[in-house]
Design a protein that fits this description.
The chain is an alpha/beta fold and about 425 residues long. The protein is built from 14 helices and 17 strands. The strands form four sheets. A five-stranded mixed β-sheet has the order 1-3-2-5-6. Strands 7-9-8-10-11 form a five-stranded mixed β-sheet, sandwiched between helices.
Length: about 425
């Protein structure tokens, strides 16, 4: 084994300290990031807010002074090294970085927390004040502490929640939990109890039946993590994490699977993000007060269409808020609930909502999209040999055009790198 002399050991220590506290120096504005310094920057800062731009892009040029101003404001608000950096990447010069981060439009604003890329981009207001407030929000503690079980009884039943139970705050397992919560704060609500609150725990009304050995483990001093689903909107049950609480990747993967549901709600706030994923939408339009159809739709998707999750986005939509797509389909609030496909070229109506409960009907509806049958039947009527799923379009010669594509990244806001972003 090689022996290290004192000078070599001293050099290694200096390098390690530099790595931990590395924060690129710049007199003002956002920090230019290159292939030489980006990895060091991402690894040594709690939060890195990245602006991917091109100098020839007019939207990038409009954003540049605003993002630089925001960087100065953030540096003033959070002066400690290792906390937050606003960085900028010239994608024409740093093509390998642009490719690594899958940049398809300029400017693109992304977040890296604790070295982990956040799935969600920043798509909000482009002002220095908005960027500063966003950074402040990102650096807030994502975990809310409860002192008694009664605190858990008031949690929102329409939200997906992760609850941690620990003896002490200084446990290494809690540090792992805190880091995962920081990375997934946009996907779930996180709550934690310590000491007596943890020892007395069980999800309200559950009578411990879902926790099994987890409760026994807690009495032995082992912390546990429990997932509580959005019970008002799904038929899911509580689940307990059974892996290692000292393994960041294992815990993150489990929580991400629980917090990002197979069926998501589309809103005007997340429509751009969902549309940019490029997958057709299978959407349940429902009345705002109708939770039963949402629960049943989710259950049927999970039971029958799991193998389609790579090909389509399963969504629910408030039929009152999305009245325009309904009108486009020739429907109104009185017709809810209804199911439709938006392929980003056309929209297709599922004939009868009640047919959803017949095994195979929704799956065949998707297959008819893939093989072109839905489009053919709008133009030429039913195929000579048809299955039971048909669409009555006697008065139409073409299906309605997509409305959700219009909610994707706008050419009035971004320079798109492809002719059709979808």
């Amino acid at each position: 084994m090689r022996a290290w002399n004192l000078k070599q050991c001293y050099y290694i220590v200096i390098v390690m300290v530099f790595y931990v506290f590395y924060q690129p120096a710049d007199s003002s504005g956002a920090v230019p990031l290159t292939s030489e310094n980006i990895d060091m920057t991402l690894a040594s800062n709690e939060l890195v807010f990245l602006n991917f731009y091109a100098e020839w892009c007019r939207f990038s040029n409009l954003l540049a002074p605003i993002f630089n101003e925001a960087a100065d404001k953030v540096r003033e608000a959070f002066p400690d090294a290792g906390r937050v950096v606003l960085g900028k990447v010239d994608c024409d010069k740093e093509t390998s970085i642009a490719s690594r981060f899958h940049i398809t439009k300029y400017p693109t604003l992304k977040i890296v927390r604790n070295g982990q890329l956040s799935k969600r981009e920043y798509r909000g207001q482009r002002s220095a004040e908005a960027f500063l407030e966003f950074v402040k929000k990102q650096l807030e503690d994502p975990i809310k502490e409860f002192s008694s079980l009664k605190d858990l009884e008031t949690l929102d039943s329409k939200k997906r929640i992760i609850i941690g139970y620990f003896d002490r705050r200084d446990q290494p397992e809690y540090d792992t939990f805190r880091k995962v919560a920081s990375n997934l704060k946009d996907e779930c609500q996180f709550h934690v109890g310590f000491g007596d609150a943890a020892q007395a725990m069980h999800p309200p009304g559950d009578e411990n039946k879902h926790l099994g050995n987890a409760l026994y483990n807690l009495t032995l001093g082992h912390p546990i993590i429990v997932f509580r689903p959005d019970v008002a909107l799904s038929h899911e049950n509580d689940e307990t994490f059974t892996g290692s609480l000292k393994n960041f990747d294992e815990l993150k993967i489990w929580i991400q699977e629980k917090c990002v549901p197979l069926v998501r709600e589309i809103t005007f706030e997340n429509a751009e993000e969902l549309t940019e994923e490029g997958l057709p939408f299978l959407i349940l339009f429902h009345h705002p007060d109708d939770t039963n159809s949402i629960k049943d739709y989710k259950a049927i998707i999970e039971q029958q269409l799991m193998d389609e999750k790579q090909n389509v986005n399963f969504l629910t939509a408030d039929g009152k808020r999305f009245a325009h797509p309904l009108h486009h389909l020739g429907k109104s609030e009185d017709d809810l609930p209804i199911i439709a496909i938006d392929s980003f070229r056309h929209m297709y109506l599922f004939p009868k909502f009640k047919d959803m409960y017949t095994p195979g009907k929704l799956k065949q509806f998707l297959q008819d999209l893939y093989n072109g049958k839905l489009h053919r039947e709008y133009h030429y009527g039913p195929d000579p040999v048809t299955n039971e799923i048909q669409i009555d379009v006697a008065s139409n010669t073409a299906p309605p055009e997509s409305t959700f594509k219009k909610l994707g990244p706008s050419k009035n806001r971004y320079t798109l790198l492809t002719k059709d972003e979808l």
